[in-house]
Amino acid sequence: MNPPVKRAKVLVVDDDSVVLKAVTQILQREGHPVVAIDDAVEGLTAAKDPSIDVVVLDIKMPNLSGMDLLRGIKAERPDVEVIMMTAFATVETAVEAVKAGAYDYLTKPFENIDEVSMTVAKAAERKALKDRARALEEALTARSQFEDLIGQSTQMRSVFKLVETVSHSTATVLIQGESGTGKELVARAIHYRSSRKDKPFVAVNCSALTETLLESELFGHVKGSFTGATGNKKGLFEAADGGTIFLDEIGDVPPATQVRLLRVLQEGEVKRVGANESIKVDVRVIAATHVDLSRAKEQGKFREDLFYRLNVITIDLPPLRDRPEDVPLLAHHFLKLYAAKADKKVTGISPRAMEALTCNRWTGNVRELENVIERAVVLTGNDIIDVEDLPPGFQAAPQADSTVEVFSLAHLPYAQAKRLAMRAFERRYLSALLEKNNQNVSSAARAAGVDRSNFRRLLKQYEVAGRSMKPRTPKEDEGEAMEAAS
Question: Distance of CA 408 to CAs 57, 308, 364, 400, Å?
Fold first, then answer.
């Protein structure tokens, strides 16, 4: 079974007892816990309760006006969403309320009681998004000691612990993981937490250079040692003396260069290409690869002695698909980063979009997620990223074939996969039911065997409501009342 959906706790403040009772009943019918108060001063005290998510209040009240109450609430609880009610709505009133921090306002008498519940639902969702963003921000702050490594999963906590332990040694470290998992970030975290942090950190991609250029880059060369060597050059091992050198994609190093690397690790000295003398260096080596070096060793593609020299301490980085609980944290980090770069006020990610991000297999790992969020920030015209802002593959409806759908969730833990699969099924079921009943909510509710108010609640919960909900008519209200009485 899915966990119960938490309903927003709502404080309603109005000196008109009829309106107070009506709004309370509307919200309670939608499942919201409601605190109803008929005095503005008492309302200000009640709003300090940290469990209050949304406040609905009247503008015209004795002792303390609604606008003063709004300012008082925002001063005490800036995170609370406030909805104003007024029988004298004007543009000036609305502008003043919004400037003072109100989320929205309602005009009395209500033309459609659904407007009340829908406005509160939207305000509650906004509050929930802000709460989630704050929680993620706190989690991001907590991991600052590990530089740009981000994660709260069991796998990443193990990585953090290992980084903490090996940073204080001088042992060679081999980092293994798929492309895009953050191997260089781990290497940097180790270096900047070590006693070598004030010395150079030098990174080189071993797969990006030819054999001759790679040897020249790593070990340096003397004038005339090969065509184009017009002078002596210091290599990266010399440049990293006293610090750390990070050899990325060590599995792609040619056999001849592997021999020279072995000498550096064994003797602590390098010989420039074309030189006769060796130069002593004090360098910690951290290597990384996306290939299985143990298998490459068995296949004769990687030297066995070099493998054992590198494989003193191994850190295995899990692919992102194996730690889906880290996706929201990473997504929020990249959202904040690229919103600042683009100078856009994009503050959150909708539940539907986050669900789509969490379900994705992320073959490109963290790097792919970063690119997706950057794209969404650039393209969105709203302050919240939604599914429509994600690449086309994320917007496609789940396949009707249950085998395909289950396979797409097979990388997730059982409980999470079950929850997401159930949400996908329920959303498709509700959409299909509405379509079959010509978008008529009452007919769809009867077909589902669910009373209308609970059916409407399901539509909101699974975000089908925006397309399918129609204003209630007196005839529908009468029909629902008769149905409830029978």
Answer: 46, 38, 16, 12
Please state whether the peptide bond connecting residue 4 to the residue before it is cis, i.e. omega within 30 degrees of 0.
no
What is d(CA 374, CA 372) in angstroms, rounded to the nearest whole number?
6
Query: Is the full-model pTM beyond 0.90?
Result: no
Strands (E), 177-255: 201-205, 220-221, 233-234, 244-248
The token pair at 109 is: 């008498």
Confidence (pLDDT) at 445? 84
Q: Exposed, middle or buried, 231 (CB in 10 Å: 0-12/13-18/19+)?
A: exposed
Q: What is the pLDDT of residues 188-212, one digit of tens each?
A: 999 989 999 999 999 999 988 888 8
Distance CA 44, CA 73 (A): 6
Burial 250-267 (b: 16+ CB within 10 A, else e): bbbbeeebbebbbebbee
Residue 190 · residue 147 · CB < 8 Å: no
Q: Are 279 and 270 in contact (CB under 8 A)?
A: yes
C-alpha dist (Å) from residue 351 to 167, 181, 420, 423:
38, 25, 12, 11
Q: How far apart are CA 185 and CA 188, in angstroms?
A: 5
> Which residues have C-beta within 8 Å of that of residue 39, sequence separation ≥ 6?
13, 15, 61, 63
284-287-292 Cα angle (round to 5) = 150
Question: CA 251 to CA 298: how far, in whole Å?
Answer: 13
Q: Exposed (0-12), middle (13-18) or buried (19+): which is 217, by Cβ within 10 Å?
A: buried
φ, ψ for residue 58 (rounded to 5)? -85, 150
Please report the DSSP string for 460-486 in residue order: HHTT-HHHH-----HHHHHHHHHHHH-
Judge contact between 280 and 238, C-beta under 8 A: no
Helix (H) or strand (E) holding 58: strand 54-58
CA 357 to CA 246: how far, in whole Å? 31
Query: What is the C-alpha separation between 109 and 87, in angstroms, rounded?
Result: 7
Residue 2 pLDDT > 70: no
Would you say 439 and 470 are in contact if contact means Cβ atoms under 8 Å apart? Answer: yes
Flag whether pLDDT at 475 surpasses 60. no
